[in-house]
Amino acid sequence: MNARALALVVLLGAVSAAAAGCGGKHQLHGDVLITAARLFDGTHFESPGRLLVRDGKVIGVGPSLAAKAKRTIRLRDATILPGFIDLHVHTEAGMVEGGDTTVRNLGAPLSALRPPSRQLGPLVLMAGPLVSVSGGYPETVWGPSIALDVRSPADARAAVRMLARRGAAVIKVALDPGHGAWPMLSVAEVRAIVAEAHAQRLRVTAHAMGVEGVRRALAGGVDELAHTPCGATPDQIREILRRHLPFVATLHVEELVDGGCLGVARQLIAGGDLPLYGTDVGNAGIPLGIDVRELQLMHEAGMTPPQVLAAATSRAGAELGRSPLGSLVTGAPADVVVVHGDARVLSNESARLLVMSRGNVIIAP
Ligand SMILES: [Zn+2]
After folding, report:
1. How far is the CA of 81 from the CAs of 34, 272, 341, 356, in angstroms?
2. Which domains does the chain possess?
């Protein structure tokens, strides 16, 4: 591995030992000062890293921050970062311990759908089931439990209203033709879903695969793609670039499932459309918590280390409409992860030293 390679690795053994040593989650009362050799605030690196938190919020940050705190956590050759935001998960368990303080679940049964909450440790935002049609994706692959089938534009609007009432933070549509055998939502249905979602102040993300899936997503006016659009044609890539359409990378899962599509990611990045971080964890082979391989692939596709880290922090918080979530600025939630060494040149030795979610210490140094 070369020196520039991103390789933030969780040494899970070390992490769980640390958690056991501190007796698990606890809220720190009063001011807590965290110091390290460097800090990434969601956009920039600065040195030394100094961060002051109180009652679950950031109350000061910066190299010249002069603060007397009741408690100081000194971590020397380490980087303080915002807690990571994974925009594409299918499980919440074990994520916060691995450094993800916010997760967006893009496919779960209706019975599991909940309004945004931090009850499980990370902030959890949910889509609930994917809006689709009978006999289509995802029920063809994952069974009917995470699919919500609709039959018409009016039916699609009613489904969105029901999901909004049940606490959905985003609406996800499935547009996957498989190998040509799976029916999909019509463009009229996608448009109806987008219009109703916007009326409910929600955005629509699309699982859009193959040329026809991407075509219907673009014609339907979705707000985001939940994966790198591996099947996109050159014309579709130009259209995605023209719209600056946000997309979630999920390059690792695509590498595992389909042999990857770095070429499409490279074209979008070179054109100025940078992906957001998301892993599709819940699929076999994707680790819980921060996924090093995903970060490496984003870097290989042409993003600089600060761009990769911003995709998982400040830009992800903005995509959720929740800035300053994902940034270490005054007033932001005290969602913090500290890793060994320099997060610009993350190595296989970069174990997680500290994880804090809304000021609650999840992993203690
Ligand atoms: Zn997924």
Report:
1. 11, 24, 12, 11
2. 12-81+326-363 (2.30.40.10), 83-319 (3.20.20.140)
